[in-house]
Structure formats: C-alpha cells, structure tokens
Amino acid sequence: MTPYFRVGVINAQGDRPRSTHPPPLSSPNMSTQKALAILEKNGPWGLINVHVDKPGPGEVLIRAEATALNPVDWKVQASGAPFVTDYPAIMGTDSAGTVVEIGEGVTRLRVGDRVFHQGWFTNRLATFKQFTISPADIVGKIPDNITFDQAASIPVGLGAAFVGLYGQPIERGGAGLVAPWQNGGLGKYAGQPIVVFGGSTSVGQYVIQLAKLSGFSPIITTSSPHNAPLVTSLGATHFISRTTPPSDVLSKVTNITSGGPSVKLVFDAISEETTQGVAYDVLAPGGTLVLVWPLKNQIDLRKRPESTLKTVVNTFGTVHHDVETIRDLGVQLYSKVEAYLASGDLKPNRTEILQGGLAGIPDGLERLRSNQVSGVKLVVRPHETGE
Ligand SMILES: NC(=O)c1ccc[n+]([C@@H]2O[C@H](COP(=O)([O-])OP(=O)(O)OC[C@H]3O[C@@H](n4cnc5c(N)ncnc54)[C@H](OP(=O)(O)O)[C@@H]3O)[C@@H](O)[C@H]2O)c1
C-alpha cells in the first residue's frame, strides 16, 4: 500500500477573504472537511483537514459525490511540478456533486443542481476534497441518465479532447477546428480521416466521440485488442492493435485511407516515446499533430525535411485557461454538454469505484502509474472517507 497519513489542519481559504454573512439554510453547515494532499514537494500523500471554502462572486460551492483520478496527479507528486508551489498541495481535477451554496451574481445554477466540473492545481480549486469550489460558468449540469460517478469521469478527459481539437492553433491550444455546436460545425469534417493514438484512454474516448460529431471518417485508433469493442462503440471505424510496429501502422493507415484524402489530423492521446514518432509520420504534410504531453526527442523536427509543413501542438486541456479564446470555448462547452450527454452523443468513461473514499486514491494512482488501468476511469466517493 502506498504510504500516507498525516492528519492536520491547514487553511485552504486561498486568497479570498472569508464571507462574514451567515450561511444560507442550504449550507452544508460544517466548517471543515477531509482532503487528500501531497504533504511536501515529492513527498507522500496524506489525508488532511481543511476549511470548507465560501464561494466568492461568480462561484459555487459543491458537495462532492465523486472525484476521478488522472495521470497528472501522480506525475505532479513524482516530478514536484513547478506550477504547484504551496504544500500540503491538494490534488484532483475531476469532480461531480450537488450545488450547496451560490456565490454573488450566479444565475445559471441553483442550490440542489447536480453538476460536474474541472478543478485546478490550487488548494481552493482542487477536487480531492469533500466540498469543491468552481467558477459557475465552467460547471456542467448532469442529465438524469448520468450518475455522479460517470460525470466525474468527464471534465479532464473531455477538456483535453476538446481543447486539442477546437482550441486555437496557439501555444497550449489545439488544431483550431470548428466545434460541433458552432455555426456549421456539426459534421463539418465529413469524409476527412483522423488517427487517434490511445483510443481507450480517457482522453482518447472523448476524442473519438468529438471526432464523430465533427463528421471525421474514417476514425482510426489504436488500443489493446480487448478494447476494440469499446472504441468502436464510441465511433471508431477502424482499430489497430497498439503493439503493431510503427511501419505496419503506417501501411495499415495508408490502406484504410487509400482513395480518399490524406491524414491531416492526428491526436496522440498517449504522447510517449512509442507513439509520438509514428504519430508524426502518419500525418500528411500540411496536417496537425495534437500531443497531450510535450514533444520528445524522437520527433526531431530538424531531421525531418517535411517538418516545416507539419504543425505540432502541445495541448493544455483545461477550461481554467488563461487564454481568453480557450476560456470562452470552455464556457460554451459547459453550457452545451448536458444536451450531448442526455442524447447519448457523448458517453462518459466506464468507471471503477475505489473503496475508502479519498484514502483509496494513492493506491489507485499507483495503478495508473504502473499501467494497470485499461479503458476505465478510477473514481472515489469523497464522503466515504473514514475517520
Ligand atoms: N495535456 C493535457 O491537458 C492532458 C489532459 C489529460 C491527460 N493528459 C495526458 O494524456 C495521457 C492519457 O491520459 P488518460 O487519463 O486519458 O489516460 P488513461 O485513461 O489512464 O490511460 C490508460 C490507457 O492507456 C492506454 N495506453 C497506454 N499505452 C498505450 C499505447 N502505447 N498505445 C495505445 N494505448 C495505450 C491503455 O490502453 P489499452 O488498455 O487499450 O492497452 C489504457 O486504456 C496521459 O499522459 C495524461 O497525463 C494530458
């Protein structure tokens, strides 16, 4: 078992002054909560007690019913990521729950709404907690056909997929496509092929579904053979085993697309040494390769004569983006996503519920780190955390 435990109290109020007015009747009527944090830079995970934040203007307070695990959580712990500066550092960026308090000026949400949202790497906005805070304009409503556990699987994976596809072609942006809900966007790319490396990842599953809404065809993807039914159920038209040698991947893609347009869009939802090179080679000149993790040495653009004709984008899939165009896109997404989920055009990831509430997260992250998770999102229920 991953070592953790230290229980203490830190003030996670962030930089906002605590409101002095009495809490509304719908308030959770509690002042502290449990949270899971990296206790010190590169240090162990620990359960800590922190204050429940008050929602500021434009924000909501949510009782978290489910939070999902992401590779970035263990990567921050292992790397001591420079963008995390305050320790203990609460992690977690996927959450679903019920709105329990509304900040000043919020009109699109009400107390009692079932919602989901993406967190951020500050103690105030992180989601490995029992109560979470979010700007209200990037909170999605959960339709009746989706559970809290399923909804918690959506924000980060969908965020990376949609920023990668529809974000502007700028640093940390995307391929600059027109989103399905924008004018003329639905089915706009009909007849154009896309290749998705890692179709069974959380991100890849959302890329496939968005690519289908955008009209791409064929949708070619890689995964383990046992996940072929999953990726095809989401909209992939062709499946290639992830263990296929790169030269064979190239010839398979060529065979599938022969007679049609060349591949102008490749989404590498793995972005490891084994995939980036072949992802780049599959791409036709003039096309765009979207990466979810920065460029590695094996795509040495200087050694590739056609490199000036291929665009490589390192996407940064968050709606807490400091780039105005991406933030605006995120606001649009969270106003539209309920309808796509209700209609089944967007399906959440399959989920596996871990026991122990927040205390179950470190072992789950170890499974993610050692590639022991296949085609599911690991989810915990924060209020199942023991004393
Ligand atoms: N840039 C961003 O904003 C952003 C956002 C989210 C995630 N990410 C990154 O995106 C990556 C994926 O994250 P995730 O949460 O979607 O992962 P995940 O769901 O935890 O990934 C697990 C899946 O990876 C697949 N996989 C592993 N190696 C593969 C390979 N060589 N080829 C094909 N499939 C492979 C496995 O497929 P099979 O079981 O079918 O073999 C498994 O289903 C991570 O590196 C993560 O850090 C980046």
UniProtKB/TrEMBL annotation:
<dbReference type="InterPro" id="IPR013149">
    <property type="entry name" value="ADH-like_C"/>
</dbReference>
<dbReference type="GO" id="GO:0016651">
    <property type="term" value="F:oxidoreductase activity, acting on NAD(P)H"/>
</dbReference>
<dbReference type="InterPro" id="IPR013154">
    <property type="entry name" value="ADH-like_N"/>
</dbReference>
<protein>
    <submittedName>
        <fullName>GroES-like protein</fullName>
    </submittedName>
</protein>
<feature type="domain" description="Enoyl reductase (ER)">
    <location>
        <begin position="46"/>
        <end position="380"/>
    </location>
</feature>
<dbReference type="InterPro" id="IPR020843">
    <property type="entry name" value="ER"/>
</dbReference>
<dbReference type="InterPro" id="IPR011032">
    <property type="entry name" value="GroES-like_sf"/>
</dbReference>
<dbReference type="Pfam" id="PF08240">
    <property type="entry name" value="ADH_N"/>
</dbReference>
<dbReference type="InterPro" id="IPR047122">
    <property type="entry name" value="Trans-enoyl_RdTase-like"/>
</dbReference>
<dbReference type="InterPro" id="IPR036291">
    <property type="entry name" value="NAD(P)-bd_dom_sf"/>
</dbReference>
<dbReference type="Pfam" id="PF00107">
    <property type="entry name" value="ADH_zinc_N"/>
</dbReference>
<feature type="region of interest" description="Disordered">
    <location>
        <begin position="11"/>
        <end position="30"/>
    </location>
</feature>
